[in-house]
Structure formats: structure tokens, C-alpha cells
Amino acid sequence: MKLNKTINRILFSVLTIAMVSSCTDLEIEETDSLISEDTGATGFTGLSDPESSLSDLYNKVGGDFQGQENMYALSEVATDELLVPTRGTDWGDNGIWRQLHTHTWTSSHLYIKNSWNNLNQNIFRATEIIESNPSAAVTAEAKFLRAFNMFFVVDLFGSVPFRGVDEGPDINPSVLNRSEAYDFVVADILDALPNLPSVAPGVENTGKATQEAANFLLAKLYLNASVYKGTGTFDAADMQKVIDAVDAIEAKGFAIQEGYFQIFEPTDDTETIWHLNSEVGGRIWNTLHYNQNSPDNEGGGWNGFTTLSDFYNSFEGAANTNYVGDGQEERRGFVPDATTANNQNLGIGYGFLIGQQYNEDGTPLTNRQGAPLSFTKEIPALVGNTEVEGVRVIKYHPFDPTDDENQNNSFRRHQIMFRYADAHLMRAEAMMRMGNDITGVVNELRQKRTDTPDLTSVSEEELLAERGRELFIEYWRRNDLVRFGQFTSPWSLKEVSGDENANLYPIPETALLSNPNLVQNPGY
């Protein structure tokens, strides 16, 4: 299910309910990871235009990662960072969002099923490109995209099915275990690296695979190697590889950028290493209220996603407000009030929206019942909420489409996946795992963020919190929590089970039925 910026919240609920109802149907689906019409008796003869297929794959990956559901939901909504509370009947959706928050999902969960299918389809399509004897440059980009998608299968599910291009539907795909798949992904990236371009920062350079993007993905793999290889210990050699990969990115001119929220505009900066050609409307409208300003989105916001009070409290600033001058660090953002709301910010804040909200002319907004539109810090329950419970989270900001400077539709198609501040913190973590004091390294980042005081020391707990403050809603919270051993810990409105099996999602029922080589993850 994909939502574009013209679909309103009501239609979203209807579609989700219909799809959730269908997700219990165990009929085998034809996906590129399972069945290919071009293989089997006739054999694979190669794609007629691998370069065009590569372009299509970039667009497919961008589309898969732009929504609020599927991989994004599994990576963010299932963490202590985001919650989608049910408001009356809004956002009920047969409990699909609540199951993610409470870790009560099953192998028939729609977003788990969709994520598995999408990622494995992309892996197979990349393999078809690679096996079509394209140029070295096209092969390298396809191997990077295969590695990127397989990374998420390894991270979310563990086991990875793999089908050769000459294997027809009568052959069950082989299955790589987590450690084997980790080695496969590393090998793909290392093989691709020499034939990828090396680029300097700039919006024109970061929309396709580069050596810098490959080094970033390598750093992610090496940092998580103890999880993926099942050793439970951070090997010094792996940590040194993280440092080396980040050093290579830095050597090309990538650096921490001042002006935090400007990074998420489609303009030149020194932080963006790789961005997807993805619409970001879902990152904007899923959190804003129906009545908030939405000049380029018919029907207003969707009034869904919020953060938890504990996550909001991890930032510097006043406890219960976030207006300008409330002592907040830059990354917590601000809420325009009656005196600071204007045509430029549209009355919509940046970061975390709490308290009374205003229109661009400074007029206080109301909810649909006419009461003040004042977002609360606490969410009392997963269900039975009104329209105003929960602090809203926004990083990409809407714009006025009548503004001549914003006519370029690229503003809506620029989602950052790899960012240098993340690489900087990965290097700091690797140094910490090797026994070094990283306080100064972390403070290098904080000193680039306005009104963000230095830390006196950085423990493992503090580093996890710092990663949350810097990288919220950027796809990495679940990955971080698992690596730090905190994904199964309790948080607000989640009953703790302590079941470490939840660190992996279940393999979908349809996949198990279609491929007997797959074995369900423990606990499901």
C-alpha cells in the first residue's frame, strides 16, 4: 500500500483494513524473489537493457522506502521512538500499529509480509542485472543495491532466500543463514567499491551508489557484526574497519553540517551521503493534525504518528513546552507561537510539536470539535485517545507551493538514507567498543548543534541516547536498540516480555509455504 500526498487519512484507514483482512490468506504469491517467468526451461538469457533496469530498480527501492508502513514501520514504529495511538476509530487498522508498539506481531502481519516481499524482489532484480553482463559501472551499482536490500533482510529477518537467475519456479531458493548472508553482503560491497564513483558532497552527487555510500554501508555491517554473526562480542578488527570506512568518507569532504533542519531540504550540504528518490510527504502528514496548515496536501494531515514522553524528555529544554526560547537544544526544534508563526514556517514547527498549535498568521488552531489544538506530552493508552494526545514529530517540513522557489518537485523526492553525522557516531561507537573515551568525539557533533551543551562523559547508555537525538525517524532506531541490547526492554504502553526472539521478525507464513528450505525464526 502506498500513499501519495493527495490521499487523505480516511482512505488510508479503509485501504489498510481491507489489506489487513487479506493478509491472512495464505495463497502463494508470485514475487520476483520466488518465481520468475524468464527462468526455468528456457533459461535466463539476460535483460535487454540492464542500464534501464538499474534505473527502474533505483525507483523501486525509492518507492519501497518512502511510505510510513513496511520497512519504516518495522524500523521505527516498533521502537521507543514512535507510537501510532488509536484515536476513536482513526488509526485502529485492526491493531496493526499497536502490535508493532507492543511487540505482539505474528508471521501474518501485513507490514512484515510486505517488507519481506519487497526486499527480496529487489535482491532478485539486482541479480538479474548483474547476470546480464552489463558494464562494470552498472554491475557495481546493482551490487550495491543488492547489498542494501539484503542488509535489511539480514537485519530484520536473519535468513535470506537466494534464487539464481537460471532457477525456475520448480526449484526452491537456497537459504543463507544470517552469518552467510552477512558475508555475502560484505563481499558484494567490496566487489562493487572499485567501480563506483567517488564523489564530494552535493545534492547532484548523492542520488546514486558511490564509494562513500558503499563505505557507509560497510560501516553499518561491521558495527553490527556481533549481532549478525551471533558472536555477542564486538571484535576489535571489525571496529577498526568501521573507523577506516568512516575515515574514507571524511577524506572526501563529508562533514557535520550546521543548521540541523536545513539538512533535510534538497539543497547542498556536507552531511548527505546517499539519498533516495523518495517522496517525503508520509514523513510530514502522518504526524500533523487534520486542521494544521497543508497548502500542498489536500485534506490536511493524517493525525497519526507521535513520540513517547520519555523520548521527548531525552532532549535539553523545558519539560512541557517547546516554543522559541524554552531552553531547547537545536535538534528538539521549536513550535511557532502567536508571535513567531509566519508565511515561511506556515505556523508548523520543526522537530517536536507540543502544546498549542498556530496558523501561519498566529491564530490559535482548534481540533475538529472546536477545542484548542494543544498536543499533550503524555498518551494515556493505546486506544481511546482524542485528537490531541501525543507530541508530534516532523523533520522534513512542508512548503508553500505558490512560492516560486519551491516549484521544483524534487523537494518532495529527497529522502536521506545515509548521513555523515550517523557515520561520525558509528566511528565514535567503534572507538568506545575498543575501550576509548569518546566524550570529545561526541561533543564534536553536539558543538555543531546550536544550544546543545557538551556532555561531561559518554557511557554506552548516553551514546544510544545521543544517536536517538541525532537520528530520530531516519530508519535506524530499531537497529541501534538491538545492537545495544535494548529492543526488548520496557517502554511506555509496552508490556515487557524480555523475549530476545523479538530481535528478529518472523518469516512470513506465505514465504514458509512457498519455500520449504526456510525455517521459521525461534519464538514464532
From TrEMBL:
Keywords: Cell outer membrane, Membrane, Signal. InterPro entries: SusD-like_N, SusD_RagB_dom, TPR-like_helical_dom_sf. GO terms for cellular component: cell outer membrane. It comes from the Bacteria. Residues 270-524 form the RagB/SusD domain. SUPFAM superfamilies: TPR-like. Pfam families: SusD-like_3 (PF14322), SusD_RagB (PF07980). PROSITE patterns: PROKAR_LIPOPROTEIN. Residues 89-223 form the SusD-like N-terminal domain. Gene3D superfamilies: 1.25.40.390. It is found in: Cell outer membrane. Belongs to the SusD family. This is RagB/SusD family nutrient uptake outer membrane protein. It comes from Zobellia amurskyensis.
